[in-house]
């Protein structure tokens, strides 16, 4: 079966792989944003003395 026949039948191709990479990119970006915001929050809390002895 040639590539043209696979495309005509709607077989796997680059157009079908793109959404998977898009979803993985969005998930990875969300994880980076969450981790960075958590680190910023911990840094601000530590700088404000919330983790020190009372």
From TrEMBL:
The keyword Membrane applies. Keywords: Membrane, Transmembrane, Transmembrane helix. The chain crosses the membrane at residues 20-51. It comes from the Bacteria. This is Uncharacterized protein. It comes from Micromonospora terminaliae.
